[in-house]
Design goal:
Structural class: alpha/beta
Largest sheet: 7 strands, mixed
Strand order of the largest sheet: 3-4-2-5-6-1-7
Helix content: 55-70%
């Protein structure tokens, strides 16, 4: 069958079962039953045949997703749609405490589908709420939620319980068992047991290599996992083979999304800093953030390629990591040594957020940079250490405090500033209400103050790198459509933040992660 015919078949399955924001009648019933079970209220009538039908649809969607993945690539929209609807169908069955869960670990299938559909938080949440008392299922569940410390711990427990399996000659057990079973015309439990041993060995090795960035051993482990997947397709049941296929695809995604890749690309700017960047990557893995999400991958791709840009992506999808990597790039890798260290100005809308950002940056970059927060009260002066230090400085400030600093210490800041980060940058687009019109007239509006501040910095330091972070992509409100001079000053930054929505047509939090050039000059 040609690729076009295969894609046509997959598209037919997607159209009938996986249209976004649309459920068929059986899917709607499965969703309602899941909610009723969760709420512990009487459920609608439901038969075993309906469960089998939903599981069959999930299998069809997984096969369709595999076709899209093979023909158009792993991130094509067709594959994403199929994976996400598969995850939903299987999650509804799992949360409804369906009897099928005793036959196949459908929570693993659901988590794998969510991971491949670009929803890792959904995968982790489901696996955390649907625990298993089977050691093998728990090991694979830890891998699917990218909890590599737990994977390594469970693999170590397995070897502790079976120390004889750690001998050098144990690697040939599976091949020998397969040969003997073929000659005897049977596939006994020995093959399944030795297959399990090899799977534990391979998954544990992949987890360890991902954490440490050991690419040569990781390549060997991935080759072994692919071989086990091919063997499972020929030896075991369809559902068991499907689990192994998802494990392999998720492992491929983890390899492609490892934080080591962008950090090694950044290390080209200053190769002698590679060991420091490697330590940073390992620290991110210890925090559970070593595997990048889709929005982070797109943001870091733009960071590697360009300097100034705006990142618009939903809350909780990892924008702060992109900002941290920008600090690493501009202050630790690109800035030239000087008597007074380079400075990054990190503008936040509130004291609470400033305190949170300061704590995060201090824990991750406090050894390399001086992190200080200035966001209210008498918390700075001309004798502050950050004014004269030779270390790189990250200065976190609210809009009002940053404006005051520019008026009081403008020449000092302008001479040192290399990076300008604007968090919650959508606030440059004000609300369309009476208080906004009054504040515009009184020149006390935060939006116009932010735009004025950015314009002053860029006018005096055109080469400064600007990064805007926001979770909102909407068009301008009515005050921005007026013709006043003050409103005109807001348009450049507002246009940069609103650009993702115009490019994508509409804002869909789970789907759209746009990265666009930001021009505030």
């Amino acid at each position: 069958m040609s690729e076009e015919m295969r894609r046509a078949v997959a598209e037919q399955v997607r159209t009938s079962l996986a249209i976004e924001n649309a459920l068929s009648r059986p899917q709607a019933r499965a969703f309602v039953r899941c909610l009723q079970t969760t709420w512990q209220v009487p459920t609608i009538q439901w038969s075993a045949r309906e469960s089998e039908s939903q599981l069959s649809d999930a299998r069809r969607l997984l096969h369709a997703a595999h076709i899209f993945r093979t023909v158009d690539g792993p991130t094509c929209p067709g594959a994403i749609d199929c994976y996400r609807r598969t995850g939903e169908l299987l999650e509804w069955l799992a949360r409804a405490d369906d009897g099928l869960r005793t036959i196949v670990p459908i929570e693993l299938l659901a988590a794998g589908a969510y991971q491949l559909g670009g929803l890792p938080a959904m995968a982790a949440g489901l696996l955390a709420q649907v625990p298993s008392d089977q050691d093998g299922v728990s090991l694979l569940a830890a891998f699917l939620r990218a909890d590599f410390d737990d994977v390594i711990a469970r693999a170590a427990n397995f070897w502790s319980e079976h120390p004889h399996l750690t001998q050098p000659d144990q690697g040939t057990l599976l091949a020998t068992a397969l040969l003997e079973s073929d000659e005897a015309g049977e596939d006994g439990d020995r093959v399944t047991w030795y297959f399990t041993i090899e799977l534990v060995r391979t998954v544990g090795l992949i987890a360890d290599c991902l954490r440490r960035g050991d690419d040569p051993r990781l390549d060997r482990a991935m080759a072994k996992l692919r071989a086990l997947d091919e063997m499972a397709a020929r030896t075991f049941s369809d559902d068991a083979a499907l689990v192994l296929s998802l494990i392999r695809d998720v492992a491929d995604r983890f390899v492609a999304a490892s934080i080591y890749k962008p950090l090694r690309a950044l290390a080209v700017l200053r190769p002698e800093r590679l060991s420091k960047l490697t330590d940073y990557a390992r620290d991110q893995f210890s925090r559970g953030r070593g595997i990048l999400w889709t929005s982070q991958l797109q943001g870091l791709e733009r960071l590697l390629r360009d300097d100034s840009f705006a990142l618009c992506t939903p809350t909780g999808s990892g924008k702060t990591l992109v900002a941290n990597m920008a600090i690493v790039k501009e202050l630790l890798l690109r800035a030239e040594p000087a008597a007074i260290g380079p400075l990054a100005l990190y503008i936040v809308p509130s004291r609470a957020l400033a305190n949170e950002v300061e704590a995060k940056l201090t824990s991750e970059l406090g050894r390399e940079c001086l992190i200080t927060g200035l966001y209210g009260g008498a918390d700075w002066g001309i004798t502050d250490a950050w004014l004269t230090t030779d270390r790189p400085v990250v200065l976190i400030a609210t809009v009002e405090k940053a404006d005051a600093l520019m008026r009081y210490l403008g020449p000092i800041l302008i001479a040192r500033i290399k990076l300008l980060i604007i968090d919650e940058a959508h606030q440059v687009v004000p609300d369309a209400d009476e208080s906004t019109r009054v504040s515009f007239a009184e020149h006390s509006n935060r939006a116009i103050r932010l735009e004025t501040l950015v314009s002053r910095i860029v006018a005096r330091q055109p080469e400064v790198v600007r990064i805007a972070l926001t979770a909102v992509a909407g068009g301008p409100h009515s005050p921005l459509r007026a013709g006043s001079k003050a409103v005109g000053m807001l348009r450049p930054l507002a246009s940069a933040i609103a650009a993702p929505a115009r490019l994508s047509g509409c804002w869909r939090p789970h789907r759209t992660h746009q990265v666009v050039s930001c021009s505030t000059s």
